[in-house]
# Entry
Amino acid sequence: MIPDVPVESLGLKFSAIATDLISGEEINLTRGSLRTILKASSAIPGIFPPVEFENKLLVDGSASESVPVAKVKEIGADRVLAVDVSSELSLIRSVKNLIDVLYRTEDISSYHLSHLRLKEADLIIWPKVKQLSWADFEKAAEIISAGETAARENLIAIKKLVRRNSYVLKIEHYIKKLKGND
# Structure
């Protein structure tokens, strides 16, 4: 379904994030085979095998970076609209075994990292999907519809962000950092 074309031929800047299992490094994939890059950046550990690419062993980027605001800024984005589709961190009744501890620990760290990274975005929209899991493939139409609704509900703010002067945005980012909101 995905053409095996070089990312460089797409006509727009493209970035996908993967995590190198060997070094633990976040990898910003901006060149090479589109098919290989998408396969690597969505290789969910334990479900899909890691992908060998440029002497790295890559898995899904969410292992190291849940909201890649800084990575898209690396390739030239001066404004970032983030879409938060993370799950809620709900209270649990008990932790019964080692597997529960490992899953819960990952949920907690992912939740907090996502919220920290979202602060770096210029605008965040929240589709109403918090009750769903990334693995709810049978609910794809519902998820897409929720995203479309969230975009329509935020259209004025999105258009305002698009029209913002880049210099004003840089000043706002600087002020945000000074205040400690970044």
In short: Residues 98-118 form the longest helix (21 residues).
